[in-house]
Task: inverse folding
């Protein structure tokens, strides 16, 4: 039912998130994949992130760096390991964080009095996740916070009104 309220572009972002998860060799779709999915398509959300220096290649690199840092913290040197990701087959489950972001998208739309769930609503839902959350961590690496995103996304509405 929720997916039916998504704008076409939001549905496309979710499909891209699944593709990004497979491309990374992950066996799940997390909030970080939803962020990557948003960055795959032109939208106001993507434009706001781009203006802050965050584009798809930068987000992918940030996730790769965070993976390497996490492995290094337990003694694994990823530079010594060369294993290409193997795309998992079949259904990829959404993590609780990703499901929460998708549900939060509805809350963001309701807050704005809108029926359709846009990429901007999804971005705001991702940015409002509690730590630890990889999407929030990627945004933080680019000094992008929830309040800043709300301000940037609301600015065109204030100027039009």
Result:
């Amino acid at each position: 039912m929720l997916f039916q309220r998504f704008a076409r572009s939001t549905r496309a972002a979710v499909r891209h998130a699944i593709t990004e998860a497979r491309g990374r060799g992950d066996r799940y779709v997390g909030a970080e994949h939803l962020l990557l999915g948003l960055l795959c398509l032109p939208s106001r959300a993507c434009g706001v992130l781009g203006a802050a220096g965050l584009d798809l290649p930068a987000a992918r690199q940030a996730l790769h760096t965070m993976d390497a840092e996490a492995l290094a913290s337990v003694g694994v040197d990823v530079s010594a390991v060369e294993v290409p990701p193997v795309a998992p087959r079949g259904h990829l489950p959404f993590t609780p964080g990703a499901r929460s972001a998708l549900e939060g998208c509805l809350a963001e739309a309701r807050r704005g009095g809108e029926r359709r769930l846009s990429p901007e609503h999804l971005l705001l839902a991702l940015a409002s996740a509690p730590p630890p959350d990889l999407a929030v961590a990627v945004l933080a690496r680019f000094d992008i916070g929830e309040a800043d995103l709300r301000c940037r996304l609301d600015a065109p509405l204030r100027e039009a009104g």
Remarks:
- The radius of gyration is 16 Å.
